[in-house]
Amino acid sequence: MRIAMIGTGYVGLVSGACFSDFGHDVVCVDKDARKIDALHQGVMPIFEPGLDRLVESNVRGGRLSFTTDLAEGVAGADAVFIAVGTPSRRGDGHADLSYVFGATEEIARALTGPAVVVTKSTVPVGTGDEVERIIRETAPEAKAWVVSNPEFLREGAAIDDFKRPDRIVVGTEDEEAAEVMREIYRPLYLNKAPLLFTSRRTAELIKYAANAFLATKITFINEIADLCEAVGAEVQDVARGIGLDNRIGAKFLHAGPGYGGSCFPKDTLALLKTAEDHQSPLRIVESVVAVNDARKRAMGRKVIQALDGDVRGKTVALLGLTFKPNTDDMRDAPSISIVQALEDAGAIVRGYDPEGVEQARPLMRNVAFADSPYAAADGADAVVLVTEWDVLRALDLPRLAAAMADTVFVDLRNVYPPEEVEEAGLRWFGVGRAPRG
């Protein structure tokens, strides 16, 4: 199959590279000439484990190419995937669909034969209807079917998620379009990946509903963590105790500083906007958004309390800045709110992250960035573990303690046993666990 992927951001580049690895002929299109030039040189615009090798091998094999010329990329394609950004629109939280609709017009003018136009971007319910309308008005003679095929990729594990998916959702009621999508995903049949066909609007809603539910699980266990601290219980044992129930499941029950990233924050807001527009309020999701926003700010207060309520003139080192490990994504990362709270209280903040520093710099202009966790901790009054990167899971705690001016260690991910931290001469503060005597 010949596939055109419009957009070389996170979803577009990973999807395009994986499709080409299946043996399809894929052209990735982007208007950003600098990004395309970098890709031609093997330089990835994002950090995703294994992506550089996957791209390089398929470019070398002649199955994957890059261009800024959309007409060239779309010409002769069996399927055209729209994988452009849908950020939250400033002011109302609705998904900004201008990039989707702009790409649709260009695709319509560039079609040279029958093709399936697939919305891979996360879009509100009804977007496919508008995409179809734009194509019909722009190119009345074009034979095109509009399909919804939402992505379910976790940053840091996207390639494995694409090749070994829990499910593949395809929204179409047209059998010709369905047959094209079956052929595109045929290489996954050996893995017995469920191919779920639904109506287009149902597929669009599945993506938002899934992300809102996962965000709810995260927020639920974070509130339980606060209760654990208040009553002297252990949140990790509570999570395990409820997660062993197959009806609940253990995933997304790790207490921490709140969710962030490119999906959950904007998708929950977009879902709320859709619900509001249709007079069908989602009170649970409203609470999830409010609680998560408050939690990120509360983590800054937790650090301040660990330093006896006063951080003015004190140095705090944050270890891990991205919203999760194995990505350089800083969008809505909890570290941003923590830094703001600490700086507002007069603290001097240092930061370390294995991959996210360049993305963090414009968001944390007063933070001094270090090239190692020990350099960040040198002379610090407190060290705060914010993101559980592998490199931060096995720190030399005695070395860390020796470098610090004071002994406060705040573990916002509950990576380290309190006893191990205290044996190293540090004072341990965690999340959702009984206070230490």
Overview of this protein structure:
By secondary structure, the protein is an alpha/beta fold. It folds into two domains: about 1-200, 3-Layer(aba) Sandwich (Rossmann fold), CATH 3.40.50; about 200-435, NAD(P)-binding Rossmann-like Domain (Rossmann fold). It has helices spanning about 10-20, 35-40, 50-60, 70-75, 100-110, 125-140, 160-165, 175-185, 200-230, 235-245, 265-275, 285-305, 335-345, 355-360, 375, 395-405, 420-425; strands at about 1-5, 25-30, 65, 80, 115-120, 145-150, 170, 195-200, 315-320, 350, 370, 380-385, 410, 425-430. The strands form three sheets. Strands 3-2-1-4-5-6 form a six-stranded parallel beta sheet, with helices on both faces. Helix 9 packs across helix 11 (about 265-275) and helix 9 runs parallel beside helix 12 (about 285-305). It starts with a strand and ends in an 8-residue tail after the last strand. The model has no long low-confidence stretch (mean pLDDT about 95).
